[in-house]
């Protein structure tokens, strides 16, 4: 078998450089490119050296770990033991993920009538697997594995950031309580213009059984003042929550002023991760006719005054 050392060096240079850049992306670092190139060159030289020198201990487990540590130090610096260990673990995680993706794709594309055709047993009981992968297919498989890893990492990071803003919301009206998940939206600055009471947005479907017939669906396309007018001049007309209904003006994305249907609750309890909840009395519940979350992970948009600060209107309370 003919081995081209220069091809081995260039392949490993590209692979190590990509792995190091993916590691930096996963740890949200921006190292200098020359440090990445130097570190990748170190790994490529180490890979090519096995075909140029016969030094058994050079390719032992300890030597491989030392070379990997040197590559991480060269690319990202030290910065303390905790930082280094996190970078070192991420570097190996990226290596395992991308190599596993390459082997998985190679196995998927492998065509053989004999499942044992690619296996060889050595005299001492060892097992050798024959993985033959053309350079072009290897490059495509490796690129796909890196893309999948980065996509999964980005998705996990977004989910983690979102979870940090998700709270438990319990709304109480006339002795009845409804609990759902809510997202704290720092850009939501909606107040009632007269009382300066913050407005929490809730999917109308949560109260579908407590609203007048059809309101939960009609709120998607019909103005709120039209629905209020149907109840009568005083806004109640026998409806149990009639005296709690409010109309809150707000400015839509197109700049037009609209009216939001809101309900005055008895209280709203907001907690996070089983911690002690806080009870808010001065709050309005604005009703949205659509779905606030594409995946249903939350059904309320929490005003930042309620979900992120210790408002003067809040009093400590046990979770409802």
UniProtKB/TrEMBL annotation:
The chain crosses the membrane at residues 36-59, 65-85, 92-111, 131-149. GO terms for biological process: asexual sporulation; proteolysis. One of its GO terms (molecular function) is aspartic-type endopeptidase activity. Keywords: Membrane, Transmembrane, Transmembrane helix. The active site is at residue 185. InterPro entries: SpoIIGA. The keyword Transport does not apply. It comes from the Bacteria. This is Sigma-E processing peptidase SpoIIGA. The lineage of its organism: Bacteria, Bacillati, Bacillota, Bacilli, Bacillales.
